Structures are given as C-alpha cells and as structure tokens.
Recover the amino acids of this structure.
C-alpha cells in the first residue's frame, strides 16, 4: 500500500506566514521507501500532527531554494539521522539546494548520499525511479516524476506553463499541481493553466495544492478543472491522505 500525505497546502509568502495552511511539504510512502518532497517551514511539527515519522524518511527531494520549499530541510535531515548519530538517507534536489547556504555543511555530513539534480537526470532508490524535470521559475529548480512499480506520480513544483513542460509528465497516473494564482503568470501555474495541463497529460487523478491567498475556494477551483477536463480532480487539504494507486 502507498500513502500520499499532505503536510501543507500553502502557496505564497502571505499564506506561509499566516500558517492557516501549512508548508510542511508532501510525504509519499511506498513499501520501505518514504520520500519527503519540499519540506518547508513547520515540516516536523506538521509531520507529528499528521502521524508521519521523520525517522523513517529515506529520501528528501527539494525542487528549489525558495523558503516554502526548503525552509525545514536541515531540521528534516536532523530528525532523519538523529542529528547525525545515524548516518543515513539521501537528499536530492536542484544543485542550488544541496549545498551551503541551503543545506548546511554539518547536515551534509549526516547523509549517506547527496544527489545534485538538473533536468533529465535519473536515479533510483530501492524500487523507485526518480526523474528530474525542467521548470520555468524565478529560481532555478526541478520538478519530479516518481516511477513506482504500480503507478507513477508527477510533481511539477513551482513553474510557469508551456506545452514542453507539460509533456514531461505524459503517462503520469497522478499529477500534483501547484496553483498559487488564479490568472496566468510567468513563473507560476494558474487554474486555467492547470486545465490545459490536465487536458494534455490525462492522468487518472489530478491534485491541486500550494494555494495562494487569492485562491479563496480550492474546492471550487478543483471542480472547475474536473468539469473542463472530465478527469478526476481534487483540492488537497492539510493532513489529507491519499492512496495514489486507488484515489482517495
């Protein structure tokens, strides 16, 4: 059984500061592998709140060096390794995220492996293959395609829309889409962009998350996407748990 756990769904600096929605990232558990994607501020507190044990984390994936995506990276590595007493685990992310000043030298020494990523690079952990994808954002970064034996998941992180970016996620069963804005922006996806994206990729399930303060009703926006694409689309909630092989 696999579990996708949302430790936060906030998507802009204002919502991050308010913490009405969390910024703890996303945890994906599959057999012996636990991946933590983009551990932002409050990642450990939200993990405890929602029943996730950070000691069981195998891999931390970091898309880019903005605070909402990496603010608790060092704390997450500390929890994963007991402050370095148990040297273990992997941190993989855009090359700007796996060195100082984002990942401190001390915590680099706590890890079994550090993998700097550029778009197109692949690596595997246990039976999970991870592909770094290209983004178009104000900070250099990557998205991720996670290929499991029984399903695949695409996580775009923060990016503007283009057909080339969307085509990287073809054949994804589950698509996690960050939509911080209502209207199209150069470096972020809007709800309209999400409609184009989902229509092109045609996943079995699309999940909207990373909501900015202008997204007043995420459930309404998810329904808009579903009505326009005829593909199941849901709005993530803090603490929501999904079996990505079966839907909600």
């Amino acid at each position: 059984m696999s579990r996708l756990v949302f430790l936060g769904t906030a998507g802009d600096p204002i919502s991050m500061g308010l913490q009405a929605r969390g910024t703890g990232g996303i945890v994906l558990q599959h057999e012996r592998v636990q991946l933590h994607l983009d551990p932002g501020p409050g990642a450990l507190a939200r993990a405890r709140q929602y029943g996730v044990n950070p000691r069981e984390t195998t891999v931390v994936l970091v898309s880019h060096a903005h605070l909402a995506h990496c603010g608790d990276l060092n704390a997450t590595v500390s929890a994963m390794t007991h402050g370095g007493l148990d040297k273990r685990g992997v941190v993989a992310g855009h090359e700007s995220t796996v060195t100082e000043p984002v990942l401190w030298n001390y915590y680099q020494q706590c890890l079994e492996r550090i993998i700097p990523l550029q778009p197109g690079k692949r690596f595997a952990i246990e039976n999970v293959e991870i592909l770094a994808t290209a983004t178009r954002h104000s900070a250099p970064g990557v998205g991720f395609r996670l290929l499991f034996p029984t399903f695949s998941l695409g996580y775009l992180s923060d990016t503007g829309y283009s057909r080339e970016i969307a085509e990287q996620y073809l054949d994804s069963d589950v698509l996690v889409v960050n939509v911080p804005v209502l209207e199209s922006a150069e470096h972020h996806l809007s709800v309209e962009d999400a409609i184009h994206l989902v229509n092109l990729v045609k996943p079995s399930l699309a999940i909207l998350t990373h909501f900015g303060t202008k997204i007043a009703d995420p459930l309404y926006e998810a329904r808009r996407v579903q009505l326009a694409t005829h593909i199941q689309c849901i709005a993530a909630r803090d603490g929501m748990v999904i079996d990505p092989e079966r839907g909600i």
User: Anything to note?
Assistant: The chain has eight helices and 14 strands. The radius of gyration is 16 Å.
